């Protein structure tokens, strides 16, 4: 061994268990945190026991009748479709759409050449029948005189009588044909059956029309109707004869009151609505044909509770409200059925009883069992 070598110093022994955290550290930490947790729980309980200031309203059940407003148009009560009774070529058209016409005013004429020819023929037939009647009448008078004197036979007298009756029948037939020809000639002029406004025209000068082909439509003067397309559900909820307020859309100062006159029995397949006609007695002059109007009517009244919309909350995904217990002032959610939403209010028809106190403001701060203090309750 070298003399320069020195003995190595002994190394201290290391205990492996000393490297692990002491099991008493988590316990000490938990013990240190327990007072803080207990203090937090106590604060929550204390906060829960503190009453929350809210506003409340006493439930009152009243009649609720929602008012519905729809847009419609002014239409004629009576609309006449006019047509010629005879066919022919239109020679003249005298009116146009939108023009007001008086009763018996001539609207159009067709070429009367054919009807005039028929009239002349009928007149000629009548003249011939009258000539035959004159001859038969003279022959009958002659046979009558001869029979009385015994110079003719009974057979000749009966033949003369029969010829007279045939001639009389021919004259009557010719007179009827002449009257028909004159009437057909008058039908070449189309006249208005009543005063009104021309709303449609289907003919032009030079056009050939058939008998009974519609050529004009006239809206008769008088009371008007307001026509609306109404949803089927609204019709079912509306009283049988509601009073409808009609307001002119362009001028709300022009108003009238009407009553439902006609409800279509079928639903329009295109729009899914029902056509309703409202009769307007003494229609104002400011409501012309085709004017846009607003009709307002109230539905059938039903028992309901009307609350501010802030009172509504949710419980298990369903509408509910906070109800205040009268004795403990604690709140609890009560499911309700919403009938309708209105401007700033909610209409409830099921779930509440008269006299209950419902929170209307401050409900977002509440939890079940929370005690509240109602603002203004002591005033």
Number of helices: 4
Largest sheet: 6 strands, mixed
Mean pLDDT: 84
Q: Helix fraction?
A: 25-40%
What radius of gyration results from the CA coordinates?
50 Å
Number of strands: 24
Shape: rod-shaped
Task: Describe it.
Strands 1, 18, 19, 20, 23 and 24 form a six-stranded mixed sheet that branches. The chain has a six-stranded antiparallel beta barrel with strand order 3-12-15-14-13-16. The protein has helices spanning 24-49, 113-149, 154-186, 232-237; strands spanning 52-58, 61-64, 67-76, 79-83, 88-93, 100-101, 106-110, 189-191, 196-201, 208-209, 214-220, 224-231, 243-248, 255-263, 273-280, 292-298, 302-308, 312-315, 318-324, 331-335, 337-342, 345-350, 357-361, 372-374. Helix 2 packs antiparallel against helix 3. It is built from four helices and 24 strands. The chain is of the alpha+beta class and 379 residues long.
Keywords:
4 helices; 6-stranded antiparallel beta barrel; disordered N terminus
């Amino acid at each position: 061994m070298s003399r320069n070598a020195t003995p190595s110093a002994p190394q201290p022994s290391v205990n492996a268990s000393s490297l692990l955290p002491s099991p008493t550290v988590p316990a000490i930490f938990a013990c240190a945190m327990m007072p803080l947790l207990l203090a937090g729980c106590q604060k929550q309980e204390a906060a829960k026991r503190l009453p929350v200031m809210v506003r409340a309203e006493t439930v009152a059940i009243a009649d609720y009748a929602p008012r519905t407003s729809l847009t419609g148009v002014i239409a004629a009560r009576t609309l006449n479709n006019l047509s010629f009774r005879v066919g022919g070529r239109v020679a003249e058209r005298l009116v146009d759409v939108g023009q007001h016409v008086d009763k018996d005013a001539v609207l159009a004429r067709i070429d009367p050449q054919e009807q005039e020819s028929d009239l002349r023929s009928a007149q000629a037939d009548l003249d011939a029948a009258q000539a035959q009647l004159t001859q038969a009448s003279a022959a009958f008078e002659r046979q009558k005189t001869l029979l009385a004197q015994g110079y003719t036979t009974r057979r000749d007298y009966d033949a003369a009588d029969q010829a007279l009756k045939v001639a009389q029948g021919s004259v009557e037939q010719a007179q009827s044909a002449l009257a028909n020809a004159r009437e057909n000639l008058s039908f070449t002029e189309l006249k208005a059956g009543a005063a009104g406004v021309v709303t449609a025209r289907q003919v032009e000068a030079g056009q050939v029309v058939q008998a009974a082909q519609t050529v004009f439509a006239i809206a008769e003067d008088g009371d008007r109707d307001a026509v609306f397309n109404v949803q089927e559900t609204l019709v079912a909820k509306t009283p049988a004869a509601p009073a409808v307020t009609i307001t002119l859309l362009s001028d709300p100062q022009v108003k009238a009151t009407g009553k439902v006159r006609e409800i279509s029995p079928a639903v329009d397949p295109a729009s899914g609505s029902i056509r309703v006609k409202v009769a307007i007695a003494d229609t104002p002059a400011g409501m012309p044909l085709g004017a846009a109007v607003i009709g307002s009517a109230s539905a059938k009244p039903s028992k309901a509770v009307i609350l501010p919309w802030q009172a509504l909350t949710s419980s298990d995904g369903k509408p509910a409200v906070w109800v205040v217990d009268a004795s403990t002032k604690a709140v609890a959610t009560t499911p309700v059925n919403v009938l309708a939403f209105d401007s700033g209010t909610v209409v409830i028809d099921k779930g509440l009883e008269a006299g209950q106190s419902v929170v209307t403001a401050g409900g977002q701060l509440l939890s079940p069992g929370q005690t509240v203090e109602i603002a203004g309750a002591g005033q």
